[in-house]
Design goal:
By secondary structure, the chain is α/β, with parallel strands linked by helices. It is 37% helix and 13% strand. It is built from 13 helices and eleven strands. The protein has a nine-stranded mixed β-sheet, with helices on both faces. Helix 1 links the parallel strand 1 and strand 2. Helix 1 runs parallel beside helix 12 and helix 6 runs parallel beside helix 8. The radius of gyration is 19 Å and the shape is globular. 48% of the residues are buried. GO terms for molecular function: purine nucleosidase activity. One of its GO terms (biological process) is purine nucleoside catabolic process. InterPro entries: Inosine/uridine_hydrolase_dom, IUNH, Ribo_hydro-like.
């Protein structure tokens, strides 16, 4: 799995679940990248590195590969900076939700630590530090994503799909498709990248009357991805708005297990989780009038992707039943509005089959919320097990 993100509070927890949330605790997160979105690309890049360090991972150029076909260090993930702006329009940000840094906390004392630039990073980034990730000669997110895909196919063959989970605007994913389309087409269908995105809405949007933020940030990129011919899964607002961090959910995420056993570092970790999600709760109440808690959007897409990876078959049916009782998906024609002043960024879903265009996106209709929170709790407990 490769996670392309714009941290963002919920993006941080998406990375958390990607690293720690598999059923057998098998390594699936091979890389991550950052894009513009919730904050500027410079801020989201730093935030992604902060989040990876917080969850016990360490970013590197190649994710800890040893000789191409060797084993990987389970705590190292490949990392690259990505697009600083959308394909055609000016960039926007979401400070009213995620704060000035993009990853603000309710308490400064419990904020995530600043990214520590050590000797590993000096060898990787050179003397330029994090700014080197944006150097014209640096490997871009699109290039790193594609290289990870090729390595995966070479080492895994057709055994397991390579999944890209986009939890921000789709600029990096669209750029990869545009740049590597002819190469991707050389692979059999079952080997090509599978795209999961948190974004879009069936009905009302959240930053426009009909537009959801991630899609509205770069509708042209979303259109390219949706019409790419790759297998695409969309987790819309209607589903992510069922994953509400209520007070009881927050308590369940930060108590029990290692939290109650006196595990070193567990108490501080719980405070960080609470501080992040309390800030998120307060902004969601102020902006969207969510009274019971904020929706934890992005981990929903990661959880769907994990269940896809762990599925046994490559099902081409209208409703992909590999997700068992965890998700319901329907196969739809989804177009992205790229011209209208009123509905720019809307995901237009042809629910009644009136379009002559082929169905192109699997749209999530529901999610087993109890099982989702169980997965998040298990992931957090697994992270605590890594602490000394």
């Amino acid at each position: 799995m490769w996670v392309d993100c714009d941290p963002g509070h919920d993006d941080a927890f998406a990375l958390y679940l990607a690293l720690h949330g598999t059923a057998e605790r098998a390594r699936v997160l091979v890389g991550a990248s950052a894009t513009h979105g919730n904050a500027s690309a410079g801020k989201t890049t730093v935030n992604a590195l902060r989040a990876l360090a917080w969850i016990g991972a360490r970013a590197s150029r190649d994710g800890g590969e040893e000789g191409g076909r060797g084993t990987r260090d389970a705590r190292r993930v490949a990392f690259a900076a990505g697009a600083e702006r959308p394909l055609l329009r000016a960039s926007s940000a979401c400070e009213e939700i995620h704060g000035e840094s993009g990853l603000d906390s309710a308490s400064a004392t419990d904020a995530l630590e600043e990214y520590a630039w050590g000797e590993d990073e000096r060898d990787w980034m050179g003397a330029g530090g994090i700014e080197a990730l944006f150097h014209p000669r640096a490997k871009t997110a699109a290039e790193a994503m594609y290289d990870a895909f090729v390595r995966h196919v070479e080492t895994s063959g057709r055994g397991r799909p390579f999944v890209v989970v986009a939890t921000g605007p789709l600029t990096n994913v669209a750029t990869m498709i545009l740049a590597k389309r002819s190469q991707i087409d050389l692979f059999p269908d079952e080997c090509r990248p599978v795209i999961f995105c948190m974004g879009g809405a069936v009905g009302d949007g959240n930053t426009g009357a009909r537009a959801e933020f991630n899609i509205q940030c770069d509708p042209e990129a979303a259109k390219i991805v949706f019409e790419s011919g790759l297998r695409v899964y969309m987790i819309p607002l209607e589903v992510t708005h069922t994953a509400i961090v209520t007070p009881s959910v927050l308590d369940s995420l930060t108590t029990g297990g290692h939290f109650d056993s006196g595990k070193a570092g567990a108490s501080a970790h719980a405070k960080q989780i609470r501080s992040l999600l309390t800030f998120f709760k307060d902004t969601y109440e102020n902006v969207f009038d969510f009274k019971t808690g904020p929706p934890l959007h992005d981990p929903c897409a990661v959880w769907a992707a994990i269940n896809f990876i762990e599925g046994a078959t490559y099902d081409e049916s209208e409703t992909d039943d590999r997700f068992r009782d965890l998700f319901e998906f329907t196969h739809e024609r989804v177009d992205v509005e790229c011209e209208s002043r009123l509905t720019y960024g809307q995901t237009v879903i042809d629910r009644w089959g009136t379009s002559a265009e082929p169905k192109n996106v699997y749209v999530a209709r529901s999610m087993n919320v109890d099982r989702f929170w169980e997965a998040m709790r298990d992931a957090i407990q697994h992270r605590l097990s890594w602490m000394s």
